[in-house]
Amino acid sequence: MAKRGDSISGSNDMLQFSKKNVPRRPKPRHMPPWEIIIADDQDEIHSIIKLVLDDFTFQNKRIKFLSAYSGEEAKTLIRQNPHVALILLDVVMETDNAGLEVVRYIREDLKNSIVQIVLNTGQPGQAPEHEIITKYGINDYKSKTEFNAGKLVTSIVSSLRAYSLSKSLHSANEKLNTYRCHLEELVNERTTELADANKKLKLEIKDRRRAEEALKHSNDIQHQLLDASPTGICLLKEGTIEWINDEMYRMFAFDLDTSYQKQHFKALYPSDEEFDRVSQIITDKIKTGELVDIDTVFQRRDGSTFPGYLKISSHNRSDYLAQSIVTISDISWRQQAEKDRIQKERLQGALEMSGSICHELNQPLQYVSGASELMIMDMAKDNPVYDTLCKLKTQVDRMGTITRKLMGLTKYQTVEYVGGRKIIDINQTTGKRSAGSIG
């Protein structure tokens, strides 16, 4: 084994270099050079490679050579210079397999998979090409006896091009991971928002069901009362109550006796002000011959109040309290109907918010989907990243399908979820399919 500084004897151990046909290119300006390590224990190898590639450029960048004369020196250089693009590595240096140990160190210890490694050996019998390529992560394997200037340049160009592509792919993967993490954060945020909205929606649905049940119960009561006496009816004489029907008993919670008799009609109102207001309206309508009907508030015997619809029929246009027939209807159902309307509006607001959230998600989803598809198209199927990108593309498309369903949500069904909860089943939703969704 030749040592550093020893001369090289014999054509079998020496690279056959010639400056003939070596391309000459204009010197680049202000471009960071390619960093290349020459790892060989023979000075002549370092000198002749630097001489041949003295003014070599690739992609407007020149070459910066780093020299190592042993495997340990090569390990130190690659560790201290993480941006090295290529290593021209001799197999036999201080030991017979020093170069192979450097390869193992780079690929396994440093986890550097993008630096290009070209093995050079003057003794190919010790390290057969097919065994080296199969076992070690090298990019090219050259015998010194066949390595002339033209082949050196060709190997340099192909290696630098491969490094550039690998570096671009590595950078793209890092960006993709960044986008993926950001997307996961967005999805988590939106999922939390949707969970909160869903929880609120479930409470509103529960309240609405209660309201519907209450309204149904009220309707049932009204139907039963209509069979007998649909409205409260009382007879007034000189302003006092002379008689009431069963509905008036129920409406004002009178006892089933004569406790209501001889009470003034004013006792049915919660205040003198409300009585005076209603009396004035009634008097004005009677004088003009209009139908006497008015919404007001009544007070039960226990002091609670309820909204009522009042109608009066009287022949005395100057004093309706002298003698008249009064019908009173409880109009609490109107308030219930208003509550029902508000519940519907809240539900609509929740559905619109769901569509808005999905709309905001579509843009980053479209970007990741498109970027993934372009990378898959430009990547060989045997690339170790290919399957990961395909799976990522599938998941992104799946999220696009989910947002597309949510954006078209107009009606929904719920399904049982963990903890006895219920969530919206987006697979059973109905509505128009929104345009512009990714898929």
Largest sheet: 5 strands, parallel
Give me the side-by-side strand order of the main sheet: 2-1-3-4-5
Report the CATH topology name of the largest domain: Rossmann fold
Return the structural class: alpha/beta
N→C terminal distance: 63 Å
Helix content: 40-55%
What is the H/E string? EHEHEHEHEHEEHHEEEHHEE
Radius of gyration: 46 Å
Instruction: Give the name of the CATH superfamily of the largest domain.
Output: Response regulator
Number of helices, counting only DSSP H or I runs of 4 residues or more: 9
Helices and strands in order:
Layout: E1 34-39, H1 43-52, E2 63-68, H2 71-80, E3 86-90, H3 98-109, E4 116-121, H4 129-135, E5 140-143, H5 149-228, E6 232-237, E7 240-244, H6 246-252, H7 272-288, E8 293-299, E9 305-313, E10 323-330, H8 332-377, H9 386-407, E11 414-416, E12 422-424
Parallel strand pairs: 1-2, 1-3, 3-4, 4-5
Antiparallel strand pairs: 6-7, 6-10, 8-9, 9-10, 11-12
Helix pairs in contact: 2-3, 5-8, 8-9
Write up this protein:
This protein has 439 residues and is an alpha/beta fold. It folds into 3 domains: 11-147, Response regulator (Rossmann fold), CATH 3.40.50.2300; 172-211 and 337-428; 229-330, Beta-Lactamase (2-Layer Sandwich), CATH 3.30.450. 48% of the residues lie in helices and 15% in strands. The protein is built from 9 helices and 12 strands. The chain has helices spanning 43-52, 71-80, 98-109, 129-135, 149-228, 246-252, 272-288, 332-377, 386-407, and strands at residues 34-39, 63-68, 86-90, 116-121, 140-143, 232-237, 240-244, 293-299, 305-313, 323-330, 414-416, 422-424. The strands form 3 sheets. It has a 5-stranded parallel beta sheet, sandwiched between helices. Strands 7-6-10-9-8 form a 5-stranded antiparallel beta sheet. Strands 11-12 form a two-stranded antiparallel sheet. Helix 1 links the parallel strand 1 and strand 2. Helix 5 (149-228) packs antiparallel against helix 8 (332-377) and helix 8 packs antiparallel against helix 9 (386-407). The longest helix has 80 residues, at 149-228. It starts with 33 loop residues before the first strand and ends in a 15-residue tail after the last strand.
